[in-house]
């Protein structure tokens, strides 16, 4: 991932919501994705996640927390069956 692109995106997001630039603390950063803790001047924190393909659809593949019982795997063939909670 291009660090300048990530910084530019974060700047655009913060500008769009009227927040100042935060300090950034990398939690986990890989070549294709990353997670950072943002700390704003007033002490507010947020988690900033970014990714490139093939990791941009994580929300469609990882079950929401607390819904594991809705997911079932078959012992004959590895697969996941899910019913949407929405």
Features:
24% strand; alpha+beta; three-stranded antiparallel beta sheet; disordered C terminus; 86 residues; globular
Q: Can you describe what's shown?
A:
With 86 residues, the protein is α+β, with helices and mostly antiparallel strands. It has one domain. The chain is 22% helix and 24% strand. It contains two helices and three strands. It has helices spanning 3-17, 58-61, and strands at residues 23-29, 33-39, 45-51. Strands 1-2-3 form a three-stranded antiparallel sheet, with no helix packed on it. A hairpin with a 3-residue loop joins strand 1 and strand 2. The radius of gyration is 17 Å and the shape is globular. Residues 71-86 have low confidence and may be disordered.
Quick structural overview:
The protein has helices spanning 3-17, 58-61; strands at 23-29, 33-39, 45-51. By secondary structure, the chain is of the alpha+beta class. Mean pLDDT is 78; it is low at 71-86.
Counted by DSSP, the helix tally is 2
Give the strand line-up of the largest sheet.
1-2-3
Secondary structural class: alpha+beta
Strand count, sense and barrel status of the largest sheet are:
3 strands, antiparallel
- Tally of structural domains: 1
Fraction of residues in H or I helices: 10-25%
One letter per element, helices H and strands E, the order comes to HEEEH
Give the number of DSSP strands.
Answer: 3
Strand content: 15-25%
**Rg, alpha carbons:** 17 Å
Mean pLDDT: 78
């Amino acid at each position: 991932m291009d660090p300048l692109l990530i910084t530019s995106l974060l700047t655009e997001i913060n500008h769009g919501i009227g927040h100042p630039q935060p300090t950034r603390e990398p939690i986990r950063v890989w070549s294709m994705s990353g997670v950072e803790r943002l700390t704003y001047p007033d002490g507010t924190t947020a988690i900033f996640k970014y990714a490139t393909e093939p990791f941009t659809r994580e929300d469609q593949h990882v079950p929401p927390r607390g819904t594991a019982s809705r997911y079932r795997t078959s012992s004959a063939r590895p697969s996941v069956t899910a019913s949407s909670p929405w």
